[in-house]
Amino acid sequence: MKYFMHLRKFTTISITGPACMLNCRFCRGRYLKNMVDLSKGDPGRTLRELFESGVRGILISGGFTREGRLPIEGYVDYLRDSKRKYGFIYNAHLGLLKDMELLDSLKGLIDVVDFEFTLSNYIIKYIRGLNLSGDSYIETLNKMIEAGLHVVPHIYLWHPGFTGDTFTREIKVIEEHGLREITLLVYIPESRSMTLPSADTLINNLRYARKVFSGKIYLGCMRPHQVKNSLDRVAVEEELVERIANPVHELISDNSELYDACCSLPEHLLSGFKLELDQRRQPSY
Questions:
Q1: What is the gyration radius of the CA atoms in the chain, in angstroms?
Q2: Whether this model's pTM surpasses 0.85
Q3: Which of 3, 54, 90, 151 is the most exposed place for a label (fewest CB within 10 A)?
Q4: Chain-wide mean pLDDT for the chain?
């Protein structure tokens, strides 16, 4: 089992600061406020300062346009220059980025695309407010793969509009595209009044995913605190996943493989982010 968290070597930047045109129901921009703001001042200087502070990997994120994509085009040159100078490893939340010329330009720059893939109308229409269907997500996935990008689809293990049929179709589409990794998320309700599923429901969904998906499964960082303890423990005990982001503290021992990085980072890039015993400290989450 490999465990992942952001401590010192890996951080997240927002190329739009706290602003988001899409303004999805589950976030409303609140997650962006905790990211390093690349939209203020000189982006090149900000990236240099991150390197000087010890950062070696960056998750590139930010607010999406009304079409559901990250407006990364204005930052490609800064990111490429910083990768050349400092050797940064980049993950990216690109959303529904379909421009082939732009996608082609990201090959060799973005090391892995964390793509929130969904076929759920609840997520697409109600949560994201997009007048689209799942076909748009499949089209985007096709184009990212065609551009030669390393894509790790992120799908929901549960959300308020969750159905087993849609979950099954999402996994099937991913496998049909020849992808051998998925990251599973658990929706964090935007309202305290929204009822969470039982831990047993999540565990059964995870067991099902393990049964039908023959590739590697990662448990992503989006998981409500109320269910993490039970879900994480069973995931480890039954070996249902290969990686867990932000695991419950009690699962981490001196013998655990622990990495200061995103859980979707390709295997060949992990060595630079492995935490030795004397480098570890309890995370603050």
A1: 18
A2: yes
A3: 54
A4: 94
